Amino acid sequence: MKLCRFADGQGQPRIGCLTDDSSIRDLTPAGIDRMEVLLEAEDCLTRISQISHATLPQIPVQEVKLLAPVERQEIWAAGVTYLRSKKARMEESEFSATAYDRVYEAERPELFFKSMPEKAVAMGEPIGIRRDARWSVPEPELALVINSRGKIAGYTIGNDMSSRDIEGENLLYLPQAKIYRGSCALGPWIELGVPETAAREWKIRVEIRRADQVVFSGETSVDQIKRGFEELVEFLYRSQIFSHGAVLLTGTGVVPPDHFTLKERDSVQIEITGIGVLRNPVITV
Ligand code: DO4
Ligand code: MG
Hints:
By secondary structure, the chain is of the alpha+beta class. Helices cover 19% and strands 35% of the residues. It is built from 8 helices and 19 strands.
């Protein structure tokens, strides 16, 4: 079951679910005015099945503006959870290579704050490359949608845009390399009710287009993540309260070759089988 947020004619958010590949059932008239109502339910699929769908408006997907599927949740990210990511970080950094090596093996994962919910970029909106960065890449990541009790209610697609030259220069620059305008894209769907074992079978693919040519494409499998989802959530929620839940990007396993950097007007498409496709144009910010 795919859940989404979309805008009505006045730009107000509404909640919907995908009924087939081409239309959205508007759940808002049934009293579902926030995704949180469903994500906090003991069993959100049962909660949705209790709604009388036949009377609800159905709208073709092409006619709606899809919003990022996040409301009041903080957005966090895990790092160095794939071997490919560890290798890339160690190569890019002159002084802090051992930190990446150690965190990959350590009990405690790398977790960092990524974005305020209102700053998340939706499907089709521009993602940013910093104007003071020379080496910018997308990071296609599976994102866990977690409720206030620490339960994984669903999954969406995340893009943890990163400035590799800034991150590689000094580990203390990580927040600047990771958190800036347009650095976090999410969506468009939240896939509900999938156990971790099934999600681990999904593939993550990225394709970058420049003037209609594919200039990079890559693929990994969710199963390549070294850590369990519950393990990441347990560390995130340790000594913390997320009253509205949280979204946690789980790290990247696809890294373009070192000579590659994103440019303005590129288009980044991330596909996670089992969820869908997130596509964004690139601008300089
Ligand atoms: O420590 C650097 C960030 C790592 C990251 O974002 C990733 O592995 O996805
Ligand atoms: Mg990342």
